[in-house]
Amino acid sequence: MNEYFLLPLASLPFPNINPILIQIGPLAVHWYGVGYIVGILFAWWYAKRLAANARLWPNGILPMKPEDLDDFIVWAAIGVVLGGRTGYVLFYDLPRYIAHPLDIFAVWQGGMSFHGGLLGVTLAMTLFSIKRGIRTWSLFDVVAAGVPVGLGLVRVANFINSELWGRPTDVPWAIEFPNGGPFARHPSQLYEALLEGVVLFLVLRILTHSRLKLKTPRFVGGAFICGYGLSRIFVEFFREPDQQLGYLLGTNWLTMGMILSSPMVLAGIWAMATAKPVPQSQPA
């Protein structure tokens, strides 16, 4: 039976939260933008706390100065926005933007790619760490540890915006989204918020504070990359593929999100498997 005809006996009502948090005249503040801003600020604050905790680092030597992270937040914001937008244009809707190139700059209409944002921030971290003489993987580790909070907030904003909803289903918690047709669907945005946000943050917290993996450069960063990739691939089985792309390679399950996330899993496994602790200094 076609999945689009699987209608449940009942579904949960969509909360209909206004996507605009505050509007003053023509100026509107959207939940989506707030999610990005709060996520970046939290990652900055959390990274500073990690970088200042000598117990977490090899030989108790702090990897960077607090002002380094103060300066890096600007680089991170630029990397997220430029990388995320560029990734969406290239990976998800290139024909549209070739036909209407000015739409590339209409970021208020939505359209950001996590994978593109990751590439943008990775480039920013690499350049910044070289410029400041900081171990690149240690910078990646402290930044990655706080990123899941922002990911979770943005996924909640996707839910509020009634976008990126899931496939039709008859599960008891299915929701009829206002622009999702006459179908009850998986609230896949909330699945992602839980896995990419809450669960991944807690896993990384255990690695940084209980397992002391910041003493093993690139392990925490690798765990983040791998954890996100696995979470995204899993949720893609419940998420409706982008309309302009649909399913890929003639399948009814393979999506662009799966294809872009699979190398992340492999890269994360490689990073964790090859990470080596920094040798402990011996007393004189």
UniProtKB/TrEMBL annotation:
GO terms for biological process: lipoprotein biosynthetic process. GO terms for cellular component: plasma membrane. Keywords: Cell membrane, Lipoprotein, Membrane, Transferase, Transmembrane, Transmembrane helix. Pathway: Protein modification; lipoprotein biosynthesis (diacylglyceryl transfer). GO terms for molecular function: phosphatidylglycerol-prolipoprotein diacylglyceryl transferase activity. A 1,2-diacyl-sn-glycero-3-phospho-(1'-sn-glycerol) binds at R155. Belongs to the Lgt family. Catalyzes the transfer of the diacylglyceryl group from phosphatidylglycerol to the sulfhydryl group of the N-terminal cysteine of a prolipoprotein, the first step in the formation of mature lipoproteins. This is Phosphatidylglycerol--prolipoprotein diacylglyceryl transferase. It comes from Mesorhizobium qingshengii.
